[in-house]
């Protein structure tokens, strides 16, 4: 039988296929998976091998090419149908993916590309060593720069990090940081809202988000390779919590804590997941 997590992602793939002509909301997909938007984007990239926005874009361009070739629809109609604001933007995306302009599709001189839909199968997982520590922390604020990462971003919150370093307040925030930068990931209306800044006891002159006191599980990570981080989030969310007495506190956002100096290839940083203790013995007794 397909396990629960796999079944959720099967439903998500079906949903995407049925709504390729509509605006697909990342927050809605994340809710289907019972994950935050940030977690969902990480896990989806691990499972699919491509970010969620790229997956949707390539599936749309695959279908658009079939329609242009087989049904003879116009480029303008295809552009509007698949969510592009103009024929020129559609043409650029089409050429980048297929390697030639859509007006040349009838010449049969070029091979089209088909980016196939994801198919999930049952497989054995687990048996992973995950090192962690439990930390009780007081209430605090993260003060700095805030921005939203939408579905089209290839790397979640990358432009927010760029916004932080380009900010006129970056030097001041870094001086207050105590050699540690905090990133807070909250669900937005359509995607994920990211706060990057210094830890403070109270909100300051910059944008800030308040983090309540509570219990956190802390996982050390080394380096910034995106595929490695995506796999690590998958192992935490879909393996660790299946085997642990801890339960994620979904009312509190996840944290990532970075050193100010991230120039070394294998620098050490930290993922913090807010949790509560649950009595799994009672769960088994009620089964």
Task: Give an overview in words.
Helix 2 (26-32) crosses helix 3. The protein has helices at residues 4-18, 26-32, 37-48, 52-70, 75-81, 87-98, 158-166, 170-176, 226-243, 280-286, and strands at residues 133-137, 140-149, 180-187, 192-200, 207-211, 214-222, 246-248, 254-259, 268-277. It is globular and about 65 Å long. Strands 1, 2, 3, 4, 5, 6, 7, 8 and 9 form a nine-stranded antiparallel beta sheet that branches. It folds into two domains: 4-107, Orthogonal Bundle (Arc Repressor Mutant, subunit A); 133-282, Alpha-Beta Barrel (Multidrug-efflux Transporter 1 Regulator Bmrr, Chain A), CATH 3.20.80. With 287 residues, it is an alpha+beta fold.
Task: Name the features.
287 residues, alpha+beta, Arc Repressor Mutant, subunit A, Multidrug-efflux Transporter 1 Regulator Bmrr, Chain A, 2 domains, nine-stranded antiparallel sheet, 10 helices, 23% strand, disordered C terminus
Question: In a nutshell, what does this entry contain?
Answer:
This is AraC family transcriptional regulator. The chain is of the alpha+beta class and 287 residues long. It contains ten helices and nine strands.
Topology diagram in text:
Blueprint (H helix, E strand, L loop, with lengths): L3 H15 L7 H7 L4 H12 L3 H19 L4 H7 L5 H12 L34 E5 L2 E10 L8 H9 L3 H7 L3 E8 L4 E9 L6 E5 L2 E9 L3 H18 L2 E3 L5 E6 L8 E10 L2 H7 L1
Antiparallel strand pairs: 1-6, 2-4, 2-5, 3-4, 3-8, 6-9, 7-9, 8-9
Helix pairs in contact: 2-3, 3-9, 5-6
Organism: Congzhengia minquanensis
Pfam family, one: HTH_18
GO molecular function, one term: DNA-binding transcription factor activity
